[in-house]
Amino acid sequence: MGEMSGDDEPLTPAGRLFQQPQMNQVIHCVIGLKNPIDVDLIKNEIQKSVMLQHPRFTSLMVRDHRGVEHWRPTKIDFDSHFLVIHHPVSEDDESAISEYMSDLCTVSQLSMDKPLWEIHILIVHKCIIFRIHHSLGDGISLMSMLLAGCRKLQDPQALPSISIPNIKPRRTFSNILVTLFFSFIFLIQFILRCLWIRDRKTAISGGSGVDLWPRKIATATFSLEHMKTVKASVPNA
């Protein structure tokens, strides 16, 4: 709790939703590297990146006397956002990352005493884990920021580009009617599900406090050939 400052900015409705105890969503982004990790180089690049130019990544989340959340600009302690793990977490990389991520998802919460992001570096496993609270941005804005910090392999000075198929949807009266009809149906289903419909109990239904039960991350490996097969089967993919 604290008094309002002139530089404070209120959270968006979506940001406030992600801050609720029932939600409290944290995004975990795992990046595996081929070469050994140079921690000082990574810190230097992030300090120069567009990420720290974003006001959300240099602001504290504070609440006023009414409990309303606001962003408050602050001077960050850069090193406090990095956690470097030098010892192996497990024998092989995949199980080590899964085990470490499971612990992060169930035990470790982001500290409210600093901006809501962290970077964990697993030296032995050549892995970097970004932890970003979802109230800092939605998926599109965060992915755009990530791409803005990347460069092309063949041209280190050029930003990556994404090809977008030039498809113009046909707007006809019948298409509009179909869209309105299904929108109405989905709205009714949503209202009914919120008010009356409940998932039936089964043998695998969780009991009371299931949201607090320990979690385990399972991974699956897909070959590049399988990905190419899927891509070739989907039009305009």
Automatic annotation (TrEMBL):
Keywords: Acyltransferase, Membrane, Transferase, Transmembrane, Transmembrane helix. One of its GO terms (cellular component) is plasma membrane. Residues 71-163 form the O-acyltransferase WSD1-like N-terminal domain. One of its GO terms (biological process) is triglyceride biosynthetic process. SUPFAM superfamilies: CoA-dependent acyltransferases. InterPro entries: O-acyltransferase_WSD1-like, O-acyltransferase_WSD1_N. PANTHER family: O-ACYLTRANSFERASE (WSD1-LIKE) FAMILY PROTEIN (PTHR31650), O-ACYLTRANSFERASE WSD1-LIKE ISOFORM X1 (PTHR31650:SF41). It comes from the Eukaryota. This is diacylglycerol O-acyltransferase. GO terms for molecular function: diacylglycerol O-acyltransferase activity. Its EC number is 2.3.1.20. It is an enzyme of class 2 (transferase). Pathway: Lipid metabolism; Glycerolipid metabolism; triacylglycerol biosynthesis. It catalyses: an acyl-CoA + a 1,2-diacyl-sn-glycerol = a triacyl-sn-glycerol + CoA. The chain crosses the membrane at residues 173-192.
